[in-house]
Design a protein that fits this description.
Blueprint: E1 5-14, H1 19-29, E2 34-37, E3 41-47, E4 68-77, H2 81-88, E5 92-94, E6 98-101, E7 112-115, H3 128-138, E8 146-150, H4 156-163, E9 168-173, H5 176-188, E10 195-198, E11 209-215, H6 218-231, E12 232-244, H7 248-257, E13 261-268, E14 271-277
Parallel strand pairs: 6-7, 8-9, 8-11, 9-10, 11-12
Antiparallel strand pairs: 1-3, 1-4, 2-3, 5-6, 12-14, 13-14
Helix pairs in contact: 3-4, 6-7
Amino acid sequence: MVSLVYLEYNFKITPAQPATDILIAELGEAGFESFVENDSGLLAYVLKSDWEEGILNDLFILQNGDFKITWSSKEIVQQNWNAEWEKNFHPIKVGDECMVRAPFHDPDNVTYDIVIEPKMSFGTGHHETTHMMLQHILDTDFVGKSVLDMGCGTGVLAILAKMKGARSVDAIDIDEWCFLNSKENVQRNDCNDINVYQGDSSLLADKKYDIILANINRNILLEDIPIYANCLNTGGILFLSGFYLEDLDTISSKCGAYGLEFEKKLEKNNWISTKYVN
């Protein structure tokens, strides 16, 4: 695969929250693909081909006087990503049952030991949205279920669903790097029967699932909720994340319009993850 050139923005943020979360959301809207939080702030990555002069000019958080945010940038080729995330990636535990770690971390005594090499993909369990989605999976019976992980990133949600006994799992991401990374991580965790596809919700025609996991962003969720509803079997479950508490009414209203009933929410640093039943 041809090496892609990224721009790495190194943001120094004081105080860290909620400025970091707001900055991630705004950078995502501006075209940035990947983020790594560290002790001083945030590393953010955007394809050089997607960059334009003044890309940061309209970001509200950078104009907010309540936070001090400075930044610098440099070019980084895709293969250099490993060195960057290895410096910042630490294992995490979700409850007492699940650990998400890199290949170079020692395993712990947990039921679900997930080994992830994220590279340029989103979804290590460190971000609030991924962490909450993992919590939902741990609290749900997946035995014998058909599952979709939409916007799979690293494939971590699909992997845990399979480890919890899902009968079949499809994982989909529009980004080529996420698609390739998910395939690698699926193999790394001996979950080779997970089907990984590159694409968007147009791949879901005539598909049916018992459980759908979608950790994307507010706008894409609102666009795709009708498709998810159509893909759910009777009694099926839809788990959503990637949006803020203030978006909850909008998301739930859209779900309700397509027969999906709100049942539960998790909240972490103003991020929300929700459960709807068909």
